[in-house]
Write a structure and sequence with these properties.
The protein contains four helices and eight strands; from the N terminus they run E-H-H-E-E-E-E-H-E-H-E-E. The longest helix has 15 residues, at about 15-30. A four-stranded antiparallel sheet has the order 1-2-3-5, sandwiched between helices. The chain has a four-stranded mixed sheet with strand order 4-6-8-7, with helices on one face. It is α+β, with helices and mostly antiparallel strands. The chain has helices spanning about 15-30, 40-55, 95-105, 120-125, and strands at about 10, 55-65, 65-75, 80, 85, 110-115, 130-135, 145-150.
Amino acid sequence: MAARAPCAVRSMRAEDMPALLDLWVESWQAAYPSIDFRARRGWADSRLAELQRDGARILVAEADGRLAGLVTVAPDTGYIDQIAVATWAQRRGVAAQLIAAARAISPAILELHVNQDNEPAVAFYRREGFTVSGAAANPRSGAPTFRMTWRA
């Protein structure tokens, strides 16, 4: 395991968006190399704006003077639509800090969907206390997903 990077979690600022989109593309590209996530950058930009308009909080983690990760959480439902960690910051506790920050926003429940074939992510959520509470398919790709839920 890599050394844990000192990490600060804060609300996203408008000027973070270009670096945040780079991080999103990079992290998803590493997880699914056969998919062109650069081509999905515009979708991610629109999706984050939509989530913010709908009241979701977008939090970013900073470590080593740069953005290390992001999480979105809807305060009213606890739904996490997006979570991503830069490849250089993975396995350093950044995702756990983002989940902890999401719990501070929604202390009773967190829910998310994760691709079933993303075994490292499923294992991480299980370590964080999430359980599989359903199954579905990704509306964009058709890939099978788990709905995972954490309750206080």
